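[Meeting: bench + compute handoff]

Bench side (C.D.) handed over the final construct sequence. Compute side (W.E.) agreed to return the predicted structure before the next meeting so the bench team could plan truncations. Sequence as handed over:
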Amino acid sequence: MLREFCAENLAGVREAIEAGAQRVELCDDLSAGGITPSDAVIKGAVKAIHALGAAVMVMVRPRGGGFAYGEEELACMVRTIVLARTLGADGVVFGCVREGKLDLPSTRRLVDAANGLDMTFHMAFDEIDPRLQLESLGLLVDLGFSRVLTHGGSLSLPIEECLPRLRTFVDAARGRISIMPGGGVTWENAESVALALGVHEVHGTRIVRMPV
């Protein structure tokens, strides 16, 4: 099972990798749900994380709040994706949702910029109308995403209460795209969550047991 550590800049990254994290989602400002880190942090983090033997996924989200982006924001996101690729990041993490629907034009634009980078569609997926989520999952497969990071419901709910919905996603994915549970997944429950869902990737800020 792959454990992805969600990091605010480089805080705790070395400790997390030494504790068993194999991949890092690199963000800034986790209080806002994670936004794009600075260019300097991306550059330094990619080098440092690779030296520790782990992969790095760069968050591409210009601000907190919703996931409907204007032209200037999308241009900024494209620039970040190009920079991440240039600096040797393994992949990028983004999501575009507008009025409860997957924003296909914006998503396609960012996919084109990624140009072969590994791609995660982040928890914006949980903002899609539940009646449209399974269809959207298929669209993300077609667009080339490797995985969807999802809680399977409101973050106010414990992850255990979201397992039935997450299982629906796993069944619909049929192995074509990875469903990566996050939000309340920790080193204490990661194995039981993964086993219950039959998934091979889990995500969180406490996904490995860190030294006190």
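W.E. noted at the follow-up: The chain has one domain: 2-204. C.D. will use this when planning the next construct.
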